């Protein structure tokens, strides 16, 4: 058990400082995430632990900002790479894009909601909204077609503030309830972090399910 505690304590400590390795990890995770290459819940787990250390006082606010800007830089670089691919393109990627009808899929998704379909797709707010509801890659490719790199950058920035800020805030609230995170069993810290993630995604699943049922009921009533 001692070895496991040491390993988990290392994870907790890893998110408690502006460690260059931690900054590089966030940069890489967020950068490749723009292409859809992600490890489920890893980024959320890290942000919750960053929040815990922030709330507990072990991580200064400015160092937290340093970690966040490293993640933001990764997202911006990843988005620019995908934007350039979509804009100037690699033949294989372009053929794949048309083969899976990604543009049509995107249009259908947007048409399912009257409110969403009215959003100006060339605004940073719509880019942020699209990224938050799982349309990160389609939004980037649409803006590549529209030649709107600055709007893409602004949308990426706004979505990051909302997404990262949510998990950091939740973690900080939990962190403020712990007198000293270094004296708190790291196993409990990790388990509680995973529990928070489970609750967040359970709520998300329930909300999506209720929205889907509501739409189905409306469609049945209209028929």
What would you note in describing this structure?
With 223 residues, the chain is an all-alpha fold. The chain has one domain.
Please estimate the helix content.
Answer: over 70%
Which value, in Å, is the CA radius of gyration? 20 Å
Query: Overall mean pLDDT score?
Result: 79
**Biggest sheet overview:** none
* Annotation, overall tally of beta strands: 0
Query: How far apart are the first and last residues' alpha carbons, in Å?
Result: 61 Å
Overall shape: globular
Uncertain residue ranges: none
Topology of this protein?
Layout: H1 2-14, H2 20-33, H3 42-56, H4 61-87, H5 91-99, H6 102-111, H7 114-117, H8 124-132, H9 136-146, H10 149-175, H11 186-222
Helix pairs in contact: 1-11, 2-4, 3-10, 3-11, 4-9, 4-10, 8-9, 8-10
Short description:
The protein has one domain (2-222). It is built from 11 helices and no strands.
Name its key features.
223 residues, 11 helices
